Amino acid sequence: MRTGLLLITCLVYCCKISAQQFTLSVNTIGFSDTTWVYLKKYYGRSEVVVDSIKGNCQTFFHVNTQHPINGLYVIETTPNHKAELIINVSEKPSVQIDYKQLKNGIIGIAHSPENEAYQQLVTAYLAYDSAFYTAWAIKANEFDTAYLAALQAKSSRLMRVQQQMNAFVDQFTQQHKGTYSATTLAPLLRLPLMDTVHTNYDYYPAFLFRHFWDNTNFLNTEQLCHFLFSELLKKYFRHWVPKYENSIKEAIDTLQLKAAANQEVLQYINTYLLRNFLKSNAEDLALYVNKNANTEACELNLSEAEKKKFERLKSLSVGQNVPEILLPNIENNKTSLTKSVTANKAIILLFWASHCGKCRVELPQIQALYQKYKTQGLEVFAVNIDENKFNWRDAVSEFKLDWINVTDEGKIADSKVLEQFNIQHTPSLFLIAKNGKIFSKEIYGKVLEKNVQMLLSPSNK
To answer: Residue 343 belongs to a domain with what CATH number?
Structure first.
């Protein structure tokens, strides 16, 4: 949560509600006639402008929103002076925005139990967050004889921190009934604890991996109107989900199942997952989110660049037709991937570089596989990405690569082929069937050979 939130002074504010609309009476002081003041609404981590006014005035912000009105808002002016407040439709506090105070991140609110409660929650959360990271920093070296003891100490410390936060939440929700802070935000911070019912866990992080969301009310759409829900999603995947693909997929399944009854919350979660997996180039996980849910709606919330990248990922998934590549070979003749595919039973499409250490390990193994199966219909279409073409030619000679060798033209940063195939590292490998469809990806060694054998099998026509 944010610090430096609110200083209770005097503000003039009134709120008239009609469905998802309200008007906000505001008095601005110390602004020039040309200075704009914006009212923004939080939706997850995004800030959406709902209205704006100019200069010193007593006027209204007019707000129409498709989302719940209750939630976190920002009052902001240039250059990036802002302060936050909670709007609760059951209140009619008075508001005043002083430019000098706003420069320090301060606005004042009178007659607002909501914002007084929110300040208490922010203070408690910051203390909790600090205690959490102190406990999380406890190191447990698996080669140390005291490893299990250190692991248990870390687990116990983390659970004590959470117990203290849960106790605060219980007290806070009783003291501030009816506020957005108590009904929506505070319950998000009340995480489950290991008890006599959960006897199959002896490590709190392992317990939270599967039970982190047990207390969350996914039917409450108002929790999307603050960045806390987004923060908890980030913390869950960063700290509680093991960094294995199957574990991450299990976490995705859990979230999608729990949120299934609320399409807006589910859409937000899917958008969050898609955006972050695309950002980290976790291709398989982005496609897994797409496979498990109808993501057309949440794709609308992606940027144009994100949409373009996601469409590329979908087009490169197993079972899709491989895009065409037309690049010069050693003799500088344009060579077609499509023609190579139709002329053979199986194609290994390999992206590599002469300076890549892993490539130099894999090349001899792929070469041995090629020599073993080339008479049965296996071909390798190797795309080199070296900008220095002498290095490419030397490497082809060094490794005696007698398959189809082509090179990407120009600078790596400008490569249309690398962009089209979403190549983020070398080596990158696609196994292509005779029908031109992607059969498998990023497999090497015995797994690659087994897949090649399946494509070359007489039963595979």
So the answer is: 3.40.30.10
| 348 located within any domain | yes
Q: How far apart are CA 451 and CA 191, in angstroms?
A: 45
Residue among 176, 139, 171, 169 nearest 154 (CA): 139
Instruction: At 186, give phi and psi (nearest 5°).
Output: -55, -40
Is residue 148 domain-resident?
Answer: no
Phi, psi of 217 (to 5 degrees): -90, 95
Q: Which residue reads 């505070």 in tokens?
A: 186
Return the residue matching tokens 């080669």. 143
Pairing type for strands 71-77 and 36-43 reads: antiparallel
Residue ranges with strand state E in 167-264: none
φ/ψ region of 111 (left if φ > 0, alpha if ψ in -120 to 50, else beta) reads: left
**Tens digit of pLDDT for each residue in 143-170?**
776 788 888 889 999 999 999 999 999 9
Q: Which two tokens stand for residue 400?
A: 């005696």
Please name the residues in contact with 238: beta carbons below 8 A apart, sequence gap of 6 or more: none
For residue 423, what are the contacts with CB-CB under 8 A and spacing of at least 6? 351, 385, 417
* For the chain, percent of residues with pLDDT exceeding 90: 67
- The enclosing domain of 106 has a CATH number of 2.60.40
Q: Chain centroid to CA 144: how far?
A: 35
- pTM value is 0.80
Q: Residue 2: is its pLDDT beyond 70? A: no
Over residues 16-25, the pLDDT tens digits come to 433 577 777 7
CA dihedral over 446, 451, 452, 458, signed as positive or negative: positive
Helix, strand and coil content of the chain, in percent to the nearest 5, comes to 45, 20, 35
Q: Which comes out higher in pLDDT, residue 88 or 411?
A: 88
67 in any annotated domain: yes
pLDDT at 196: 60
Last residue of a domain, one of 61, 83, 114: 114
Tell whether 294 is covered by a domain.
Answer: no
Domain count of the fold of the chain: 2
Could you tell me the two tokens for 385? Answer: 């990405």
pLDDT in tens, 32-75: 999 999 999 999 999 999 999 998 988 877 778 888 899 999 99
Q: Out of 114, 136, 165, pick the residue that ends a domain.
A: 114
Domain encompassing residue 54: 15-114
> What span, in angstroms and rounded, lies between the C-alpha atoms of 192 and 169?
12
CA 228/CA 162 separation, integer angstroms: 16
Q: Encode pLDDT of 287-340 as tens digits.
A: 888 877 766 656 667 888 888 888 888 888 899 999 999 999 999 999 999 999
170 three-class SS: helix
Taking alpha carbons only, the member of 78, 94, 70 closest to residue 12 is 94
